[in-house]
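Researcher: We plan to redesign the surface later, but first we want a full-length starting point. Tokens attached.
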């Protein structure tokens, strides 16, 4: 199974009185993610399941991928990907999803922690930039410390 972790694209700054939940991607963030997803298609021919944090900026990032890949199924929104998520819950989420190409859209600093814990039992220093994508291969089901990192690509590598 291949699991892709994608940090949401560049989002608006939080405004006074506004909930962090409602921050949207900036126009620049949308453009960069659109370019990045076009680049993904050269590396990843298909995506089976898209799961996002319910925060708007993550859902909008997932929607860019859904549209570019022509996926008819809606993006699954799951609270286990909200800021503050636990890696054990993310592993359970991954193993509940159908398909072999599963994409999770979420946030920092969580995704650096999840990526580290999925590929290492001693910790790995990860710099997970906005819009970056990481590919983790699991032989069989996802388990802590059992994944192999195949790539971690920043959004700017796709010309964004």
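Model: Full-length starting sequence:
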């Amino acid at each position: 199974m291949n699991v892709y972790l994608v940090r949401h694209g560049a989002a608006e700054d939080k405004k006074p009185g506004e909930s962090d939940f409602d921050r949207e991607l900036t126009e620049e963030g949308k453009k960069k993610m659109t370019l990045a997803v076009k680049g993904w298609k050269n590396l990843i021919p298909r995506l089976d399941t898209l799961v996002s944090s319910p925060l708007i900026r993550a859902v909008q990032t997932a929607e860019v991928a859904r549209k570019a890949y022509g996926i008819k199924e809606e993006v699954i929104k799951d609270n286990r990907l909200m800021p503050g998520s636990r890696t054990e819950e993310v592993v359970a989420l991954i193993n509940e999803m159908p398909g072999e190409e599963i994409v999770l859209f979420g946030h920092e600093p969580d995704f650096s922690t999840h990526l580290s814990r999925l590929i290492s039992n001693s910790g790995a220093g990860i710099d997970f930039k906005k819009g970056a994508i990481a590919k983790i291969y699991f032989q069989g089901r996802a388990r802590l410390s059992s994944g192999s990192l195949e790539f971690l690509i920043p959004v700017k590598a796709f010309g964004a």
